[in-house]
Design goal:
Elements (H helix, E strand, L loop, with lengths): L3 E7 L3 H12 L6 E8 L5 H6 L6 E6 L5 H10 L5 E6 L3 E2 L3 H11 L3 E11 L25 H11 L9 E3 L15 H10 L3 E13 L13 H15 L9 H7 L14 H11 L3 H16 L1 H11 L3 H10 L5 H4 L2 E9 L9 E7 L5 E9 L4 E7 L6 E10 L2 E2 L3 E3 L3 E3 L2 E4 L6 E7 L3 E10 L4 H25 L4 H22 L1
Parallel strand pairs: 1-2, 1-4, 2-3, 6-8
Antiparallel strand pairs: 4-7, 5-8, 6-7, 9-10, 9-12, 11-19, 12-18, 13-14, 13-17, 13-19, 15-18, 16-17
Helix pairs in contact: 7-10, 9-10, 10-12, 14-15
Length: 504
């Protein structure tokens, strides 16, 4: 019986595969079996695999690709080692990786799994220094912590364990597999392992993690399809955290930040975790939080508990459902990124500015509302509708504290049929008013021209006619040289070219 069963999963990595296999065969610790699973590669991977002749190798070669679940599940049925190690067909182990991990695991029975730190290499196998801001820069570089702290880290930061660095005890309860997960099977595995057992990360860089060219910048190499799948699989996996809410004391060890939801020594862990999900930066978690809150409010008993402990009811839930944009509505509807600057006597400043995302409705209509406490009398307001470099906007009504204001101006290049034409990245309207009181409320109604081309053509025609008329007068009066007339025509042509560039 071998001490370690190494499961090496392979798919279309023929270029790197030999080095990966060799790094296992050359381990200083030799009491292992190597189970190589090729999941239907369409390159020469299977030829590379067959070229190795070592009695410790067992082959699992398939004609069709079936996914990461089977790349682990089937070899596990034939693994006989006390420990199991995962390996990937494009990574390389240091020669003493297995010996260091086996020694640690033999001496520390309290741990179910042992990971290592990571070195990065490029396509050729040379060391690769990740630039600042790269998503992999610090993801694996974690200090050891308790099981509860690992779970907390997994909740907020997702997977932080390097899958091809692991060595774990060959006990079936240590490995949770899910055939439905193609992008995040490792996140699911290690989350479920940490729910029951302790894990450790050796502070030694014992694996060379290969970053191919498409992964060497901070832009994800995931296709749109895979990115969508990651978001959905994150949601499915995050549901596992709600199995941690049965024991309130254990829950608070994992999520000490949930202590703010303890009231008089009582806590409803499901509610607390749902609220933490709403605080998460990922929409997948926010959606999960809303679903849990919906379920709690839909049950008369738990709804009464929420009301009693937290004063949380359907009205507050309404506000939560309006704040968590889990379906990305902000990116699906046309919006203005509007700002209102308020002059309380010292001019306009970022400190006294209000920002709102304003939805553009049917026909280009929009409504923007800004409110803030008064710091003194208002001298002037400035409304910046957006930062686009081409806009046609007509303001139809301005209400300041409920009173209509008509005295406003703009930095528009032209006004066409009451539409202000902006060819600047800093369009603004100034609103002159004298306001005193406890609160300022500004409501702006307007229309964005969604097809500006006809009005732009009119603008160009008007400008052309104006310049031609001026040129004619100049020619008739003979007061300007022909060079200056030519200069005016060049200005007109330049203006036309600028508008063409803006329109794309």
């Amino acid at each position: 019986m071998p001490k370690v069963s190494v499961i090496l999963s392979s798919y279309n990595h023929a270029k790197y595969l030999a080095a990966s296999i060799q790094s296992v065969l050359e381990q200083t610790f030799s009491d292992f079996e190597l189970l190589i699973f090729d999941d239907g590669s369409t390159d020469t991977s299977q030829e590379v695999i067959r070229s190795f002749d070592d009695p410790r190798i067992k082959l699992f070669l398939y004609e069709k690709n079936r996914g990461p679940y089977y790349a682990i599940q089937e070899p596990l049925e034939f693994s006989h080692g006390e420990y199991i190690a995962f390996h990937h067909s494009d990574d390389i182990w240091e020669r003493d990786k297995l010996s260091a991990q086996v020694e640690f695991m033999d001496a520390h029975k309290e741990y179910a799994a042992c990971f290592t730190q990571v070195k990065f290499i490029d396509e050729s196998g040379a060391p690769y220094d990740l630039p600042e801001g790269h998503p992999y820069k610090l993801v694996f570089k974690k200090k050891n912590r308790s099981r509860e702290e690992w779970l907390n880290n997994l909740f907020w930061n997702l997977n932080c364990f390097c899958n091809p660095s692991v060595l774990f005890r060959n006990e079936r309860e240590n490995l949770a597999l899910n055939a439905c997960l193609w992008q995040l099977p490792d996140f699911y595995m290690w989350l479920n392992l940490c729910k029951r057992r302790n894990v450790y990360v050796l502070e030694r860089e014992l694996i060379n993690f290969r970053l191919r060219r498409e992964n060497q910048n901070s832009v994800s190499s995931l296709s749109l399809e895979k990115s969508i799948r990651v978001s959905n699989e994150t949601y499915f996996t995050a549901r596992e955290f709600f199995s941690l809410t049965d024991d309130a004391q254990e829950f608070l060890k994992i999520f000490p930040e949930a202590k703010k939801y303890c009231v008089g020594g009582e806590i409803l862990p499901d509610f607390a975790l749902a609220k933490l999900c709403l605080e998460h930066h990922l929409p997948s978690y926010q959606k999960l939080g809303l679903e849990k809150l919906y379920a709690l409010l839909s049950n008369a008993e738990t709804a009464a508990t929420l009301k009693k402990l937290y004063g949380y009811d359907e009205k507050i839930f309404m506000r939560d459902t309006g704040a968590a944009d889990v379906f990305g509505i902000k990116f699906q509807v046309p919006l203005l990124h509007s700002c209102l600057y308020v002059d309380f006597g010292a001019g306009f400043s970022e400190e006294d500015s209000l920002r709102e995302l304003v939805q553009i409705g049917a026909g280009g209509a929009f409504f923007a509302k800004f409110t803030c406490p008064m710091k003194g009398s208002v001298r002037q307001l400035r409304f910046d509708p957006d930062d686009k470099n081409l806009m046609l906007i007509r303001l139809t009504k301005i209400l300041v504290n409920g009173v209509e204001v008509t005295n406003f101006s703009s930095n528009a290049q032209e006004i066409l049929d009451e539409y202000h034409l902006f060819l600047s990245t800093d369009p603004w309207f100034t609103i002159n008013c004298e306001i005193v009181g406890a609160e300022l409320s500004v409501e702006i109604f307007g229309v964005v021209e969604q097809n500006p081309l006809p009005k732009l053509e009119k603008f160009c025609t008007n400008a052309s006619q104006t310049i031609k008329a001026q040129a004619k007068q100049i020619d008739e009066l003979n007061s300007l040289s022909s060079e200056k007339v030519s200069g005016l025509m060049q200005t007109l042509n330049s203006l036309k070219e600028s508008i063409k560039k803006i329109l794309g």
